[in-house]
Automatic annotation (TrEMBL):
A Pfam family per the record: Glycos_transf_1
PANTHER family assigned: GLYCOSYLTRANSFERASE WBBK-RELATED
GO MF term set: glycosyltransferase activity
Protein name as catalogued: Glycosyltransferase involved in cell wall biosynthesis
UniProt keyword annotations, A-Z: Transferase
Entry keyword Transferase: yes
Domain Glycosyl transferase family stretches: 196-345
UniProt organism field: Acidipila rosea
CDD domains linked: GT4_MtfB-like
The keyword DNA-binding is assigned to this record: no
Sequence ranges assigned to domain Glycosyltransferase subfamily 4-like N-terminal in this UniProt record: 23-175
Length: 380
């Protein structure tokens, strides 16, 4: 595709606080621009949404007005100035009708929100409101109209096709690359960072990185760690839980079980996470579901063995460089970890081999090839 092509990336509303989507859109913009493409990132302006405090119930409705009353006019007008429009988040699929006159692409990161609303997950029983169901159906209807959908994993593609009940005209799976330059830190580099986090230079610890979404299975992390504490070789091993502050349920579990050796680390920096990966015995990542599973790659890039679920997309992303466990069975998970984690050196080697599948160049080349297919299809 010629670098003269003008690409419009459509991002998310700032007040929604979707940091992973923000990083993804900015990553695409940065890498496409570095290759000489003329690229712009357009996001809904915060106009009405800024008039009310985030705690005010009215702020949500004002934000919806910004996104779905005011922004579509701007988007329709600006889209005509570009050769291709890429909507970076599938939750914005309703925008597709405003860019239909321009060749377009949309990325689907996962359909867990939609499937949860439709009560597809026994681990997350819900009673969705009629309004939420309408919102989810609006997204599905938008995706059904898509000419080209990029999914970030084969599992996401599989679940999306089940929802759509048909394959879009053009469908591609393009894996993420790392969106930060994670690599193994030396002991000397990591030690002062870990010391500030309360970890001794030779501390033995397992690491979990993630938020409190139900599918992250953070209570399951604690349950697995409780079982591991019974294994002689894991005596003295600490669990570091990095990410969001614990939920009341997690605090209650730690208290009721008198679980020792657990450290809560809220909102660590990328550098701190890199140091944690570099010094950990392993990443413990027993998610029930994911769209992709970035921490798996981050850990492998830092030479950290990975323990993750025997489900996709975790298996798909981890490759051979992981210990696979049943995330719903803490006893069997602990038994498998105690057995398989003995061979840490091989897990690290396999992890480094696996990470090579997810290079930045491979990702961007795949996007450019897909863009070219879309542009050629529009000319046919």
């Amino acid at each position: 595709m010629t670098t003269q092509a003008k690409i419009l990336l459509v991002g998310n509303y700032a007040l929604d606080g979707q940091q992973s989507m923000k990083r993804y859109a900015e990553f695409l913009k940065r890498e496409l621009a570095a290759r000489g493409y003329r690229v712009e990132l357009l996001e809904p302006s915060v106009t009405l949404g800024g008039l009310a405090s985030p705690k005010n119930p009215l702020s949500k409705w004002l934000g919806l007005a910004d996104k779905f009353l005011l922004f579509p006019r701007t988007l329709r007008k600006r889209a005509r100035e570009f050769d291709l429009v890429h909507i970076c988040d599938h939750s914005n699929a309703p925008y597709l009708k405003y860019v239909s006159a321009t060749p377009n692409v949309i990325t689907c990161h996962d359909v867990m929100g939609i499937r949860s609303a439709l009560q597809h997950y026994p681990e997350n029983p819900t009673v969705p409101s009629a309004r939420l169901l309408r919102r989810m159906q609006w997204i599905v209807d938008g995706l059904k109209s898509a000419k080209c959908v990029i999914c970030i994993s084969r599992k996401t593609e599989e679940e999306l096709l089940t929802l759509l009940e048909r394959r879009p005209p053009l469908q591609r799976v393009i894996h993420h690359s790392l969106n930060w330059n994670y690599q193994k830190m030396s002991v000397e580099e990591a030690a002062p960072i870990l010391h500030k986090l309360g970890l001794a230079p030779k501390a033995r610890y397992l690491l979990h990185v993630g938020g409190n979404q139900w599918y992250k299975n953070r209570l399951g992390v604690l349950r697995i760690f409780k079982e591991l504490r019974k294994v002689p070789s894991f005596q003295g091993v600490t669990l570091v839980m990095a990410g969001k502050s614990w939920t009341p349920e997690m605090r209650a579990f730690v208290s009721q079980e008198a679980l020792q050796g657990v450290i809560e680390l809220v909102s660590p920096s990328n550098e701190q996470v890199q140091a944690l990966y570099s010094g950990a015995q392993a990443l413990l990542f027993p998610s029930f579901h994911e769209g992709f599973g970035w921490p798996i790659l981050e850990a492998q890039a830092c030479g950290c063995p990975v323990i993750t679920s025997n489900r996709d997309p975790m298996r798909e992303i981890a490759g051979a460089g992981a210990v696979l466990i049943d995330p719903a069975d803490p006893v069997s998970a602990a038994r498998e970890i105690a057995l398989r984690l003995r061979n840490q050196d091989q897990l690290v080697k396999d992890g480094f081999v696996n990470i090579s599948r997810f290079s930045k160049d491979a990702m961007i080349n795949s996007y450019l090839e897909t863009y070219e297919e879309v542009l050629q299809g529009a000319k046919a």
